[in-house]
């Protein structure tokens, strides 16, 4: 199994280009939109999945034709999700020549997308080398309370410093965040003040 350096990319308001118009492309587009990216799609045909995104109000630039190398110009990230391996290969080569991060839906390129679970402020990604297993793990993880804790802890992050989180991250404390956010915030205030 290949080894990866895990990162979370900031794509908000950045141009991300998806080459391909099928269902796989639609999943990639949906993920980019969820992260606030400006999305450009280049494909001769657009699937119903993408049309549904458009009709749901998604702001997507559609270029309805075959891929040409200039389509990736100005892109922060490129995803090759065409149904043609040769097109995907060309996209990866063009991106490499232009210093643009790129991936192919078949796993080639600079990075991969693992399975993703989003809940409020929390974004979790799992990669196992077996996509079905990664999706299963994401579905099985319960984030109850962690989103509420994340929102409150973000307010006290600087005051808490490196060691101030212990009392706030126990299972009992996270359950408190889910059940009573005000009580959890009082606990965070006490930890930030050094009184617990």
Automatic annotation (TrEMBL):
Q: What is its EC number?
A: 1.3.1.76
Q: Which reaction does it catalyse?
A: precorrin-2 + NAD(+) = sirohydrochlorin + NADH + 2 H(+)
Q: Name one GO biological process term.
A: siroheme biosynthetic process
Record's SUPFAM superfamilies?
NAD(P)-binding Rossmann-fold domains
Q: Which Gene3D superfamilies does its entry note?
A: NAD(P)-binding Rossmann-like Domain (3.40.50.720)
Into which EC class is this enzyme placed?
oxidoreductase
Keywords, ordered alphabetically: NAD, Oxidoreductase, Porphyrin biosynthesis
Pfam families for the chain:
NAD_binding_7
Record pathway: Porphyrin-containing compound metabolism; siroheme biosynthesis; sirohydrochlorin from precorrin-2: step 1/1
A GO molecular-function annotation? precorrin-2 dehydrogenase activity
| PANTHER family with a match to the protein in the record | SIROHEME BIOSYNTHESIS PROTEIN MET8
| NCBIfam families per record | cysG_Nterm
Q: What protein am I looking at?
A: precorrin-2 dehydrogenase
